[in-house]
Amino acid sequence: MGYIEELRKIVGHRPLILTGSVGILVNKRGQLLLQQRVFPAGSWGLPGGLMELGESAEETCMREVWEETGLTAGSLKLINVYSGKNYLVTAENGDQFYAVTIAYFTETFSGEMKMDPQESMNIKFYHPDEFPENMVGSHKVIIEDFICNIYKKEKYATE
Predict the structure, then answer these.
(1) CATH node for 19-154
(2) What is the pLDDT of residues 34-61, one digit of tens each?
């Protein structure tokens, strides 16, 4: 039984504050890796998940990226931290939590891409002009911040 499940036995469905990390992987063509998630069903988002006891935010991001994509993320760079009243999540079972999400990006990664069918329906690189429509709202905000403030389109135009 994991940390979150143990907490839920004590507090039930009451809101918790849960910390997690997501990662944006950018390939040499400037495409971003997206994951079509099992929950929320069929929506597209970023690989990531909740922190385990004793983990750093960077370790969480790297572990989740590897578990969900089979890829090992290289050097991570901070995008931003997302939290507050707009990040209240209610799970299908009624559990509520306020998400604190630390978002990173990297242009270096290795391994062979493979998805975890328990968490993903598909994983695929997309150019920012071609993203699927059904995106996780909070992940869409993170991606928009990344594209507006960090992503350099001209860098990939010649590669």
Answers:
(1) 3.90.79.10
(2) 999 998 889 999 999 999 999 999 999 9
